[in-house]
Amino acid sequence: MSMKSRHNVDPAFSMSSMTDIIFLLLIFFMLTSSFITPSGLPVNLPSSKSTNIVMQKVSVTITKDMLYFVNDKRVAPADIETAIKRELRNADEGVVVLHIDKSVPTEHLVRVAGIASSLKAKVSIAAQPNE
Protein backbone atom coordinates (compact mmCIF):
# COMPACT_ATOMS: atom_id res chain seq x y z
CA MET A 1 0.00 0.00 0.00
CA SER A 2 1.54 3.22 -1.09
CA MET A 3 0.96 6.32 0.98
CA LYS A 4 0.78 9.47 -1.07
CA SER A 5 0.17 12.88 0.24
CA ARG A 6 -2.94 14.55 -1.02
CA HIS A 7 -1.46 18.01 -0.65
CA ASN A 8 1.20 18.73 -3.20
CA VAL A 9 3.31 21.77 -2.38
CA ASP A 10 4.47 23.80 -5.34
CA PRO A 11 8.09 24.89 -4.68
CA ALA A 12 7.88 27.86 -7.12
CA PHE A 13 7.81 31.37 -5.60
CA SER A 14 5.55 34.01 -7.12
CA MET A 15 7.23 37.41 -7.42
CA SER A 16 4.05 39.28 -8.41
CA SER A 17 3.25 40.39 -4.85
CA MET A 18 6.83 41.61 -4.37
CA THR A 19 6.69 43.74 -7.51
CA ASP A 20 3.40 45.25 -6.34
CA ILE A 21 5.01 46.31 -3.06
CA ILE A 22 8.03 47.80 -4.82
CA PHE A 23 5.77 49.67 -7.23
CA LEU A 24 3.75 51.14 -4.36
CA LEU A 25 6.93 52.19 -2.54
CA LEU A 26 8.22 53.84 -5.71
CA ILE A 27 5.01 55.85 -6.06
CA PHE A 28 5.14 56.84 -2.38
CA PHE A 29 8.73 58.12 -2.58
CA MET A 30 8.09 59.98 -5.83
CA LEU A 31 5.14 61.81 -4.29
CA THR A 32 6.83 62.70 -1.00
CA SER A 33 10.11 63.85 -2.54
CA SER A 34 8.54 66.70 -4.52
CA PHE A 35 7.18 68.64 -1.51
CA ILE A 36 10.22 70.91 -1.16
CA THR A 37 10.43 73.26 -4.12
CA PRO A 38 13.60 75.33 -4.35
CA SER A 39 13.48 78.84 -5.67
CA GLY A 40 14.30 78.99 -9.37
CA LEU A 41 16.01 82.38 -9.24
CA PRO A 42 19.81 82.63 -9.11
CA VAL A 43 20.58 84.01 -5.65
CA ASN A 44 23.91 83.70 -3.87
CA LEU A 45 22.70 82.79 -0.36
CA PRO A 46 24.78 83.40 2.74
CA SER A 47 26.09 80.37 4.62
CA SER A 48 25.14 79.20 8.08
CA LYS A 49 26.29 76.45 10.47
CA SER A 50 22.79 75.08 10.91
CA THR A 51 20.01 75.29 8.39
CA ASN A 52 16.51 73.92 8.68
CA ILE A 53 14.32 72.89 5.79
CA VAL A 54 11.07 74.83 5.88
CA MET A 55 8.11 74.03 3.70
CA GLN A 56 7.89 77.03 1.41
CA LYS A 57 4.45 78.58 1.17
CA VAL A 58 5.46 82.13 0.30
CA SER A 59 8.92 82.79 -1.07
CA VAL A 60 10.31 86.33 -1.29
CA THR A 61 13.51 86.71 -3.31
CA ILE A 62 15.72 89.78 -3.66
CA THR A 63 18.45 89.39 -6.27
CA LYS A 64 21.77 91.20 -6.38
CA ASP A 65 20.25 93.55 -8.99
CA MET A 66 17.65 94.62 -6.36
CA LEU A 67 14.78 92.86 -8.15
CA TYR A 68 11.97 91.68 -5.91
CA PHE A 69 10.11 88.40 -6.57
CA VAL A 70 7.22 86.85 -4.65
CA ASN A 71 6.83 83.16 -5.53
CA ASP A 72 8.97 83.73 -8.65
CA LYS A 73 6.74 86.58 -9.90
CA ARG A 74 8.44 89.95 -10.25
CA VAL A 75 7.01 92.65 -7.98
CA ALA A 76 7.79 96.34 -7.60
CA PRO A 77 9.36 97.19 -4.21
CA ALA A 78 6.41 99.46 -3.39
CA ASP A 79 3.92 96.62 -4.00
CA ILE A 80 5.71 93.98 -1.92
CA GLU A 81 3.25 94.20 0.99
CA THR A 82 0.16 93.65 -1.14
CA ALA A 83 1.83 90.77 -2.99
CA ILE A 84 2.81 89.02 0.26
CA LYS A 85 -0.67 89.59 1.69
CA ARG A 86 -2.27 88.07 -1.43
CA GLU A 87 0.00 85.01 -1.33
CA LEU A 88 -0.56 84.50 2.41
CA ARG A 89 -4.32 84.36 1.81
CA ASN A 90 -3.76 81.48 -0.64
CA ALA A 91 -1.35 79.59 1.66
CA ASP A 92 -2.34 77.15 4.40
CA GLU A 93 0.33 78.36 6.82
CA GLY A 94 1.68 81.85 7.33
CA VAL A 95 5.32 81.07 6.55
CA VAL A 96 7.45 83.47 4.51
CA VAL A 97 10.88 82.26 3.37
CA LEU A 98 13.33 85.04 2.45
CA HIS A 99 15.90 84.31 -0.27
CA ILE A 100 18.14 87.37 -0.07
CA ASP A 101 21.39 87.61 -2.01
CA LYS A 102 24.31 88.21 0.36
CA SER A 103 25.33 91.34 -1.54
CA VAL A 104 21.95 93.01 -0.84
CA PRO A 105 22.07 95.58 1.98
CA THR A 106 20.51 94.44 5.26
CA GLU A 107 17.93 97.23 5.25
CA HIS A 108 16.03 95.45 2.45
CA LEU A 109 15.97 92.20 4.44
CA VAL A 110 14.71 94.01 7.53
CA ARG A 111 12.06 95.86 5.55
CA VAL A 112 10.61 92.69 3.99
CA ALA A 113 10.85 90.76 7.28
CA GLY A 114 9.02 93.60 9.04
CA ILE A 115 6.25 93.55 6.45
CA ALA A 116 5.85 89.78 6.82
CA SER A 117 5.85 90.04 10.62
CA SER A 118 3.20 92.76 10.54
CA LEU A 119 1.04 90.36 8.51
CA LYS A 120 1.36 87.79 11.35
CA ALA A 121 3.56 85.45 9.29
CA LYS A 122 6.50 83.37 10.49
CA VAL A 123 9.68 84.59 8.82
CA SER A 124 12.52 82.27 7.85
CA ILE A 125 15.76 83.25 6.11
CA ALA A 126 17.17 80.81 3.55
CA ALA A 127 20.88 80.00 3.83
CA GLN A 128 23.36 77.50 2.46
CA PRO A 129 24.93 75.04 4.91
CA ASN A 130 28.65 75.42 5.69
CA GLU A 131 30.77 72.68 4.24
Q: What do you see in this structure?
A:
The chain has 3 helices and 7 strands, in the order αββββαβαββ. With 131 residues, it is an alpha/beta fold. It has a domain at 47-129: Nucleotidyltransferase, domain 5 (2-Layer Sandwich), CATH 3.30.420. Strands 4-3-2-5-6 form a 5-stranded mixed β-sheet, with helices on one face. It has a two-stranded parallel ribbon with strand order 1-7. A hairpin with a 5-residue loop joins strand 2 and strand 3 (68-70). The longest helix has 17 residues, at 16-32. The chain is elongated. The N and C termini lie far apart (79 Å). The relative contact order is 0.18.
Could you give a short description of this structure?
The chain contains three helices and seven strands.
Which characteristics define this entry?
Nucleotidyltransferase, domain 5, single chain, five-stranded mixed sheet, 131 residues, two-stranded parallel sheet, transmembrane transporter activity, alpha/beta, 3 helices, elongated
